[in-house]
Design a protein that fits this description.
alpha+beta, Beta-Lactamase, binds S-adenosylmethionine, 20 helices, rod-shaped, Rossmann fold, 4 domains, Chemotaxis Receptor Methyltransferase Cher, domain 1, about 625 residues
């Protein structure tokens, strides 16, 4: 079995439409699509999709009828008028204000059907810009996938009843009467460019300031809607507006657009950041001459040591002090004259920490020795804390040259640390409480989240039912229009029939021959006035009765056979002359002509013409 035959029949039908006519209905809402196709199937008497596909292949003219049924073209001027009023008062002025006076204003009505939407926006733009600016600046692209609808739109014609929603001033200003209908004025019409465009397949029109896509998206499934919306997003300028139909709300779920006012169906585009790589290179050139640096090196080193935030003492390998920095002098009671003395002679060598053992260890292992949080207490003062570091100074050739001893004041840090400890404890308690509150919040949040999700689902379901209802409404409107047309035709036909009937009745009434028309069972169908006069029996007494059973002065026994012959043979005219008795009981000679004819139900009928040839 091929792929083709394994597909459900509807899918095969859709594929056939796509391949043979380029119409892709796969993104349309299934429920609507099925209803519309089945409507056509019922009309051509196809019992299933496969039979309908066969029918389409044999009768290509059915494509037009099918597309007309699927592409519901319901539209009108100022459809959903409050939305147009909002556009007129809130949106058009913003669009115009965002442009230079000479810049074109580009509008796209996508899914314009028979054009009313494009004509509506043209009138509003004409009002907002004034005649001459409108002529110069307005460009309205009006597109649809349906060529037939576009052909109608291009004419720019309207019946009086179509213009009921157009405010009287606008009707006066923008329409001209031509016989029984109205035509849009040429200067308004010239700015509108009609063209075929398939929202699912064709490249979008660009640089659009106002994109009107009303009551069209709702025919598509969510996935196809998203695809179309992405294209519409591309079409709009960054300051452009998207104007949707009353029932179209799915945009609240997309990141591409935001609603201008949630109660209206007008949206602005959320622009995508364009990827602009900006590389800024800042080059700063210094101008230091080596000759300026060299003589000052020693002094710079000295100043650098003094500028250090730690106290530092340097000794040589014999334990003689070779340098004391400023911090060490001020913080540990040392003086410049201590340089050159043995470290072990000074109090600092054993208080606040035993430096001698640290120096021994550093020398022995040739590595830094550290002691942290060494406490020093001075009279009436807060305790101080130091990190003490003894670093062996080793030259490139691994020769030990001396020792650096540094004291880093960590008192502030320690105080903060203790504070931190206390705070930490308090925080831990608070944190536990917070944790439990957090968990409660989390649970509440999750419950809320799930309620929100439920609400969103319900909302989407409602939304989709709403769109479904709106679609059905449009279908009903379209069926209603069809029925009204049929009704008008039937009324015309009925008037014509009545006229023919009256005409026939008058002929029958004025004939000087008695006329009786019999059906194939020889029951009377027609009995004219002269027949009533001849036999004294009213039409009401004879219609529907068997002719041969009538109680009249005609010798029906004699006539029975010729009448049946005439009926059965279907040809020829039988003519007989019989003796009859009129309604006053007088005898007279009567000529009876019997003619067969085709009856309305396809069977035969007989006409009897009765004439007195000799009066009694
Ligand atoms: C109900 S009408 C809406 C007309 C008008 N926008 C309004 O709101 O009054 C829907 C229109 O969408 C058109 N349409 C359907 N599918 C389309 C497609 N893929 N691309 C462009 N137009 C499409 C139909 O031909 C029809 O004219």
């Amino acid at each position: 079995m091929s792929d083709q035959t394994q597909k459900p029949d509807l899918e095969r039908l859709l594929e056939y439409l796509r391949e043979s006519r380029g119409f892709d209905f796969s993104g349309y809402k299934r429920t609507t699509l099925v209803r519309r196709v089945q409507k056509r199937m019922a009309q051509v008497g196809a019992k299933d999709y496969a039979a309908y596909l066969d029918h389409l292949q044999l009768h290509p003219e059915e494509f037009v009828a099918l597309f007309n049924t699927i592409l519901i073209n319901v539209t009108s001027y100022f459809r959903d008028r409050p939305a147009w009023e909002y556009l007129q008062t809130e949106i058009l002025p913003k669009i115009i204000a965002s442009k230079q006076r000479y810049e074109p204003i580009r509008v796209w009505s996508a899914g314009v059907a028979s054009g009313e939407e494009a004509f509506t926006v043209a009138m509003l733009l004409g009002e907002a810009l004034g005649a001459s600016e409108y002529r110069e600046r307005a460009k309205i692209y009006a597109t649809d996938v349906d060529q037939e609808a576009l052909a109608q739109a291009r004419q720019g014609r309207a019946e009086e009843k179509d213009l009921e929603e157009v405010p009287a001033v606008l009707r006066e200003k923008y329409f001209e009467r031509e016989g029984h209908h109205y035509v849009l004025r040429g200067d308004l019409r010239r700015s509108i460019i009609f063209g075929r465009h398939d929202l699912m397949q064709d490249a979008p029109i660009s640089r659009i300031d106002l994109l009107i896509s009303r009551n069209t998206l709702m025919y598509f499934e969510a996935e196809a809607q998203a695809k179309i919306l992405a294209r519409l997003h591309y079409s709009l300028t960054d300051k452009g507006y998207l104007f949707l139909g009353k029932a179209e709300m799915l945009l609240t779920r997309t990141a591409l657009f935001t609603a201008v006012d949630p109660s209206q169906r007008v949206f602005t585009k959320v622009p995508h950041e364009s990827l602009k790589d900006r590389l800024v290179v800042l080059a700063q050139a210094g101008n230091l001459e080596p000759s300026n640096i060299m003589p000052r090196q020693a002094r710079v080193r000295e100043l650098m040591a003094d500028a250090m935030p730690i106290a530092q003492i340097v000794t040589d390998t014999g334990g003689i002090i070779t340098a004391i920095n400023d911090r060490a002098r001020s913080g540990f009671g040392l003086v410049t004259a201590d340089v050159g003395r043995p470290l072990q002679d000074l109090e600092i060598s054993y208080r606040p920490v035993d430096l001698r053992s640290m120096i021994d260890e550093a020398h022995r292992h040739r590595k830094t020795v550290k002691v942290q949080d060494v406490e020093r207490r001075r009279a009436n003062a807060e305790p101080e804390f130091f990190d003490v570091e003894v670093v062996p100074l080793i030259d490139k050739g691994a020769t030990l040259l001396g020792t650096s001893i540094s004291f880093t004041d960590v008192s502030g840090y320690n105080r903060v640390n203790r504070e931190l400890e206390r705070s930490k404890h308090a925080l831990e308690t608070a944190s536990e409480e917070l944790q439990s509150t957090n968990e409660e919040l989390e649970t509440t949040n999750e419950e809320l989240q799930s309620t929100v999700e439920e609400l969103e689902t319900t909302n989407e379901e409602l939304q989709s039912s709403n769109e479904e209802l709106e679609t059905m409404n449009e279908e009903l409107e379209s069926t209603n229009t069809e029925l009204q047309t049929i009704n008008t035709e039937l009324q015309d036909r009925s008037i014509q029939l009545n006229q023919v009937n009256t005409f026939m009745e008058q002929i029958m009434a004025n004939l000087q021959l008695g006329v009786a028309v019999l059906d194939r069972d020889l029951r009377v169908q027609l009995w004219n006035r002269r027949a009533q006069d001849m036999w004294g029996v009213q039409a009401a007494e004879t219609i529907g009765q068997p002719m041969l059973g009538l109680d009249i002065g005609l010798p029906l026994n004699e006539l029975a056979k010729p009448i049946k012959n005439c009926l059965n043979s279907g040809n020829g005219l039988q003519e007989l002359t019989v003796q009859a008795t009129n309604r006053r009981g007088k005898s007279f000679t009567c000529r009876v002509q019997c003619t067969a004819m085709g009856g309305p139900d396809g069977g035969r009928s007989v006409i009897l013409l009765m004439e007195a040839v000799e009066q009694a």
